Structure to design on (678 residues):
């Protein structure tokens, strides 16, 4: 019996754990570029630094947490394979990381998952098990596979190995651009946002961290306002990566480390996505657009209510672009010609 | 009377002219990144290095030539303003460069030009004059504006200042990746392709330069095959940047410096554009896709018939992505769901 607590038994990964995660995964992932756009800066009235996880391996930040979790396994654990549930980017990331580790990945996907996401999982060698499109059905199917195969569960966000991995994106951004005034990231289950806050505060204690959430899936906003975890009542947002509920673990980290949650409308998500595609010439998915939308409002950065910079210069804002996986056959941009 | 020939009187800009052009424009444009993609490399069976002029100011390489031409003007010439005709990227580039030089730009556009292109010209302060959608009408309208205003003509490609500017993209790519086996670029009027060949051969005499052209606008292919300039008989291609005819000047440079022209189908253009958006997460316009399409065929790089590399490694191929300006409201990707 060891006296050292297992990382899973503490609430949040500490800075040392995050630095170790970064050392573990750095050789296996891209150090994604930080991009800028003069025309979006002009709209926002700020200098924005975009951490482009849309250009990350498998097309999203999810590969950070998945790689950290799967490469943290002991050889005996790795030999058993891994299991997870996800309808999207985490599924592809676990399949990819498992193949690189040389182990098997069982991926539980809802039967209505987009076919492009299923294809990505298959292309990376993952074994898909379909379940009913209910959160409860996902967990039950995972539990059954765990029992039957002995596979190790790799939860999409309620897992400190995952959170520590996701924290490395903010760590890299702060390594590149030290003097940000605030950092914006989207929030869904809270893996990215809690990791972003921990990674940012490891580099810069006290840096303002702001979560961005669709009005149509607003459980993080309501939970922080109420001071206790609220259920996800609806998730009919175009931001298909942001339809999961917070977990107690991620909620607790957000309460401690996140300054506020800003809600954005579906129209703002689509307009922001379009602005980024048109002006920056990069493909981001709707979930990424959620994190820049507050800056593209009429009042721009002023809507965030930040104090002025000591140097009197425009604010410097970091934005995490979470991913770039979209189905090009069903984009939301055609409404203008159909009118 | 000077004994020095004006650059316009010689057929092609020499290497010194190209280096001077690069010094002139480098502070005014982006040094665009060279991107790679493991999944496209796997399809092609080669290592591809993409020069991302879609991430260039104004969204295309055209700003290189336009900036070189407009910043080459004497103060007296610049005071007269500039005039050009273009339905697309050259129009926006001239408007942008003229504003930076502090001079006026008259832009002749066909009455059926896409509204997004007109908006870009207006946003950069250009003054649009509409003409009939005929090549002859464009030239006549430009000539009239020259007579009436004294403005200096900046032709989209039949101009050595323009060609020298476009040559700087290939020069930068070769500076970054020296040991390419071949360099691919799209061809329309031939400004980019002739510049690419001159820039490449300034850096690496003898480097294989291959032009890529839509089957539906194949005058360069037919002209090189026939050994004399052939008329553009049709231009009904989705690659809206590649609908212009070669000029005698660009044809002569291509004959001397380009190894061959490869034709690509409309379906190949759309599929290649889609592959780049999906795999690289960057927005390229159809004209850019034309230059990667030959590498994404079933035989990949083998279809180009290159000799093996001396080191036995996979071929290293440069591709110029010419631009990223697309109308997001009318993309060609929806055909799959509409079937």
């Amino acid at each position: 019996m060891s006296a050292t607590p297992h990382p899973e038994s503490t609430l949040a990964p500490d800075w040392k754990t995050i630095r170790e995660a970064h050392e573990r995964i750095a050789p296996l992932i891209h150090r994604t570029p930080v991009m800028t756009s003069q025309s979006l800066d002009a709209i926002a009235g700020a200098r924005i630094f975009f951490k482009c996880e849309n250009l990350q391996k498998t097309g999203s930040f999810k590969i950070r947490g998945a790689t950290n979790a799967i490469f943290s396994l002991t050889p005996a654990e790795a030999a058993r394979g891994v299991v997870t549930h996800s309808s999207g980017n985490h599924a592809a990331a676990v399949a990819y990381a498992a193949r690189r580790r040389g182990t098997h990945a069982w991926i539980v996907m809802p039967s209505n998952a987009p076919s492009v996401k299923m294809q990505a999982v298959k292309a990376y060698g993952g074994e898909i098990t379909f379940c009913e499109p209910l959160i409860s059905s996902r967990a039950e199917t995972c539990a059954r596979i765990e029992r039957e195969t002995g596979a190790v569960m790799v939860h999409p966000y309620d897992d400190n190995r995952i959170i520590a991995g996701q924290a490395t994106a903010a760590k890299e951004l702060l390594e590149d651009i030290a003097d940000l005034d605030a950092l914006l990231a989207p929030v869904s289950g809270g893996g990215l946002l809690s990791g972003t806050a921990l990674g940012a505060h490891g580099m810069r204690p006290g840096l303002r961290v702001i979560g961005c959430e669709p009005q149509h899936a607003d459980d993080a906003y309501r939970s922080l306002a109420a001071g206790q975890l609220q259920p996800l009542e609806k998730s009919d947002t175009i931001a298909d990566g942001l339809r999961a509920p917070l977990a107690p673990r991620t909620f607790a980290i957000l309460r401690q480390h996140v300054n506020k949650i800003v809600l954005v409308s579906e129209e703002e998500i689509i307009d922001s996505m379009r602005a980024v595609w048109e002006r920056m010439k990069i493909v981001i998915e709707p979930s990424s657009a959620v994190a820049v939308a507050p800056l593209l409002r009429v009042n721009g950065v002023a809507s965030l209510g930040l104090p002025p910079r000591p140097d009197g210069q425009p604010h410097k804002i970091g934005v995490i672009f979470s991913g770039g996986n979209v189905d090009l056959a069903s984009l939301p941009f055609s409404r203008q010609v159909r009118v």
